Amino acid sequence: MPIPYLLTTLLYTFVAILAAADASFVSWNLSAAFPALRWIRVHFITLGIVSQVVFGLLPGLVASLAKKPKPATRWDIWLTLNMGFIALIAGFSGVNQAMIFAGGTLIFIATTLLFLQLWNARGGDAPASLKFYITGLFYLLVGIIIGTGLWLNWSDALFIKVPLEAHIHANSWGFMSLTFAGLLVDFIPMITGRPLGSPKNITAIFWSMAVGAFFLVLGPWLGGNMPAIITGLVLHIGSTVWLVVLMGRALKSSGQLATAGGWHLLASYIWILLPVLIAPLILTHVIAGGPVESTAPQPLIYGWVLQFGIALIPYILRRSFLKEENPQLGGCWGSLSALTLGGILIWISIFIPAPAKGILYGVGFALYALALVHPMKEIFEIAKAGLKKYESA
Hints:
The chain is mainly alpha-helical. It is 78% helix and 0% strand. It has helices spanning 3-27, 38-65, 75-94, 97-119, 130-152, 163-192, 199-221, 226-253, 260-267, 270-283, 289-295, 297-320, 333-350, 356-392. Helix 2 (38-65) packs antiparallel against helix 3 (75-94), helix 10 runs antiparallel to helix 12 and helix 12 (297-320) runs parallel beside helix 14.
C-alpha cells in the first residue's frame, strides 16, 4: 500500500479516537463544543479509515493477484479523495452547502478514477474478487450522489422518497459489504492457507449480495417499497450468512479463532446481522423505528466496519508495507471486549429513557475510543518500522 495512504489512515484513526471520545463527553454533558458530530464520526470510519485502505490497496492487490506489474501510485486519486474528504467534513461542520458540494464532487471524481482503473484490469488472470470491488465502487458512486443531495435538496429531483436510508443502504449494503466480501475472498487464503470457497460458491455469493443491495437501495428510493426491501434482505442476508459460515470454517481450521484478530473478523458480522433481526419488529410496529434508525448506524459502523478493519488493516499493512510473509491479524482481546460491550450498551440505550440513555450512550462511545487505542498503536508501529526501512534504502 502506498505510503501516502498509510499516513492518512494513521491520521484519520487518531481523529476517529477523538471523535468517539467527544461523543462520550457530549452525552455526559461534559462538553457541548461539537454536539452534531454523529455523521462526521461515521464518515471518519468509512470515507476516512476504510476508503484510505481500499483506495490504496486495491490497484496493487488486483495487479499482484493477476500477475501483472505493480501500478504506479495515482496521486490524482489520492489528492482528490483527501481534498474531497476534508472539504466534506468542513461542510458538515458548518452546514456549508458549497463545501459539501465540492467535497462530494471531488470524492466522486476519485471514486470514478479508481473504478476505471480497476475496470481496465478485467480479463485474463483477473482475480474473482475484482467483480466485488468494481460493483462495490459503483454503489459508492450511487451513495455519494444520494448523500451529497441530502444537503442540497436533490432528493425531489431524483424522486428519492427516503434519501437518508437509501444513502446508508448504498454505502453499507452496497459499497462496504461487497468490498469486504472481496477482501475476504483474497485474504482468507493468505491468512488460513485454504480458499474461502469454491468458485461456484463465490460467484453465487457475489450475485446474491449485489442484487440484494440493489433492492435494498430501491426500497427506500421508492418510499419503503416492501417487496423490494424484503427481496433485498433475503438475498443480501442469505449471502452474508453464507460468507460468514465459509469464513468461520476457514478461521477455525487454521487455528485463527484462538486469536483476538480471528474473533474480531468473525464477530464483526454480528453487528451487520443485528439490525436485520430488529427490522421485523419495526415493520410490525412492535418497537418504534425512529430511535433505532437514528442510533443503529453508529454501532453498525463501529461494530462491523471498524472491527473488520481492526483485524484486517494491520494484517494488510504488515504484509504489503513490511513484507512479512505470515503476519498476524490486528487487534487484541481488550479491543474486542471494548467494542463488543460498547455496541451492546449503545443498543440498550436506544430502548431506555433519559438520563440513563445518555449515560449508557456515553459509556459505549468511551469504550469505542478505548478500542481504537491498540489499533492506532499497531498502525503507528508499522508505519514507523516501514518508513525506517524506506529511509535506509
